[in-house]
Amino acid sequence: MRNEARYAFHKTSPVMLGFLFLGASYGIYMHKLGFNFLYPLLMAATIFAGSVEFIIGNLLVQSFQPLTVLVLTALVNSRHIFYGITMLKKYSNTGKLKPILIFGMCDESFSLNATLKIPDNLDHSYVYFYVTAFNYFSWVVGAGLGGLLGGMINLNLAGLDFIMTALFIVLFTEQLKNARTQRDALIGLVFAIICLLFCSKNVFLLVTLVTLVVLFSLNYLIMRRKDDIN
């Protein structure tokens, strides 16, 4: 397991660094709202959905609206449904680790686990587990430290979230370079731009994912039918 942990740490370290800073900014944000460090620490550990945690932090200082929280959480995290579909095969034989992998799946863990070319001598299940665990704990630790040190830190954190955007650009570029065909990735990129132009920023990702699932499913059925005819 030590080799799997070492390999996963090497691959995950850029994400972990970003998570520490972003988690700290979340902890500082919660401190500014008037919460002690236990709130961001426990919310990060139990919710583990970065953008949702920021939203809920703001909602906690307003009148309690559980239905609003439920709807917002479902909309913001609806993309995880498609992540799960993509990872069905990779996670199918992970045994006792599967619940942890499901709970800990976030954008960054999905991107890494979906694209890693793991050496044959390593246990793939444990590599996925360590990637997920390292990301999880870096976010939780960052949130706790930010909440704990929030009163001592007076920094302008505007634009810090671009760390994750830059990381996704790198991951997308790397995946595009290694893909057997770039057609599907380019189709996804084009549809994402189109949906962003015609849909609200709050829903364009969901619309894009649904559209692509329908499109690729139809393409798969058509190709399968052609193969059956031939």
From TrEMBL:
It is a multi-pass membrane protein. This is Branched-chain amino acid transport protein AzlC. Keywords: Cell membrane, Membrane, Transmembrane, Transmembrane helix, Transport. It is found in: Cell membrane. The chain crosses the membrane at residues 12-29, 41-61, 67-88, 127-149, 155-173, 185-218. The keyword Transmembrane applies. InterPro entries: Brnchd-chn_aa_trnsp_permease. Pfam families: AzlC.
